Amino acid sequence: MATFNNTDLAAFKDVWVFCEQRQGKLMPTDFELISEGRKLADELGVKLCGLLLGDNVEGLAKELGGYGADEVIVCESPLLKDYTTDAYTKVICDVIMELKPEAFLIGATNIGRDLGPRCAARLHTGLCADCTHLDVDMESYKNFLRESSTLPEDRIAGTSKAKVLGQDHDVSRDMKMTRPAFGGHLMASIICPRFRPSMATVRPGVMKKAAFDQAKADACKIVKPQFSLTEADLKTEVVEVVKAAKKLVDLVGADFVVSVGRGISRDVEQGIKLAEELAAELGGVVGGSRAAIDAGWLSADHQVGQTGKTVHPKVYVALGISGAIQHKAGMQDSECIIAVNKNETAPIFEVADYGICGDLFKVTPMLIEAIRAAKAATVSYTHLRAHETSQ
Questions:
Q1: Model confidence pTM above 0.90
Q2: Chain-wide mean pLDDT for the chain?
Q3: DSSP assignment of 296-347, as one string?
């Protein structure tokens, strides 16, 4: 380990993803990051490797291959059964120093946000926290800037180089890591040009999960490197794991999301009630823009956007949301977007599949009634068909 040189960039290769498991179960963020890591590995022309730590977890590894991993590096020990910062940091850093990946992704979960900075500090490399977008390929990155920023074209064209210690640096092989800055009012793209691995924690729900491929799962290679871990390496001991039940809105997993924004300010209580009724008819949940959360109308777990949750529902309904860049970035990949706003020039209409220019307090009750009528018609048709069949 004494020979580890994190500035010898040519010695580093492959993209790694830390695959978090809790009590023998893989977390949803693992599949999102493996899917995103596959894209980055293809852009770099290298392998994608999952890194899985735990006790008796090898049986979970093949599933990661089904989402794109070429290999899964499995480190097993009874001391890794439950997450502890000391144990996981030591094993991960030892394996990274030995095998030298050029990029390392970690989900920005409670565990990932603890683990990422510890590993980066020990490896003396850079970490971009809470990322919402990743790119290596320059054209892909420039297209992302064109769609998601207000930068002029000449500035976008000039992003191929950066000043590093006063010298021009070609960023074509650096991972471009984008995250919200200044409370979400700006988006910052960060590179790690001098050290490896470049590390990022990625916000859950932001990256799209690929379709599972059984053939890829079967072809995935399992690697079990040698590592050293003893009780002397641990400064903490997990005595008991206690789960606390707290009901939070599941925006990321919802098929239908109805969000409210500053437009409900005229009658906040009625606006939220209408959103809840519409969401109930659709079988979905209620979200909100940052303005609605900052005003205290909804709790933080309802927030959609760069500084909240990124969602990909079948239908996203935006009620009284103007559509700032930060909000659009959190919902613009929804399958169908319906926007209701009194301002016909509201930016939300730029990404909407259906735009209704009108008062949400008048339009929303009409939507609710239309859905109820459609449901009633479907039920009547079903009963009619059943009656005809029985004749």
A1: no
A2: 89
A3: TSS-GGGBBSTTSB----SEEEEES----HHHHTTTTTSSEEEEEES-TT-G
